[in-house]
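Hello, quick one for you while I still have it in my head. No rush at all, and the record is pasted right below.
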Amino acid sequence: MAKILVTGAAGFIGYHTSERLLARGDEVVGLDNVNDYYDPTLKEARIARLAPNAGFRLVRKELGDRAGVEQLFRDERFDRVIHLAAQAGVRYSITNPHTYIESNLVGFLHILEGCRHHGVQHLTYASSSSVYGANTAMPFSVHQNVDHPVSLYAATKKANELMAHTYSHLYNLPTTGLRFFTVYGPWGRPDMALFLFTKAILEGRAIDVFNFGKMRRDFTFIDDIVEGVIRTSDHIASPNRVWNSDAPDPATSKAPYRIYNIGNNNPVELMHLIETLEKALGRVATKNLLPIQAGDVPATFANVDALVQDVGFAPQTSIEDGVARFVSWYRSYYNIGD
């Protein structure tokens, strides 16, 4: 049994991760500001499901509250930290850049400092497949260079990886970054494609299909993601003893630092996702076919070999099963019949 700080505990991945940790007997302190980037009612509903567990407490606080975060680490003495809180969204970063700096950079610094000064055994944090940016070699590998982001959101996630390495190097703090690939499932985010499509189709509205439906994403079901997150948290990062500074591997270091992709390893074309959703809903969507938007990348595809080798990660959920489970949850949560 460990005492674990989960930031973003009211969020999609944070909620599911907290639930799984509690089920195995860990003590979980959730940190979340429950902001209105999307419907806070959904966040409050997630919290309400966690709250009855005696091992769970929620702290409502901003990551940018330096003194407050310092006090939290000082009072609680966490064994491990799973940092999932961030300002998310590629397209939102185009119009709201300052929010990303305050949350994703300043907030991450406060987490790093808390871990550094209070003996945290391991910091596992959310990065993103967005860091691959202009890369086109598929599947994306953690051993590739990722110096060409195409959105500010991606740039902040790349910056998080660099900041984490600095703390691993200077202070011997074990850190592991997980590059998430398009996570979906029950209790998901309303700003993500599957949620938006489901809502629009059930309401009889047309859906916006970018890149004319040719976008390809490595859609990864939430249960598979959570299994990988927890296995990674349990597997404390260690130095790569054969790391070579003449040919540096971006995914490892002589410091206790690791970067992993966490995805389904099976990209799906957006139009196939829509067809799968139509079957699950029993309805046909009206589609507005549109060009690709600024900041978007046409495809993502995760090479997960390193995560499989180190922690035994193995995604189990097909897109057909995952979409059906999401639709079932959506109908139940919003009380929508067939």
DSSP finds eleven helices and 13 strands in the chain. Residues 231 and 311 are 6 Å apart (CA to CA). The first strand starts at residue 3 and ends at 7.
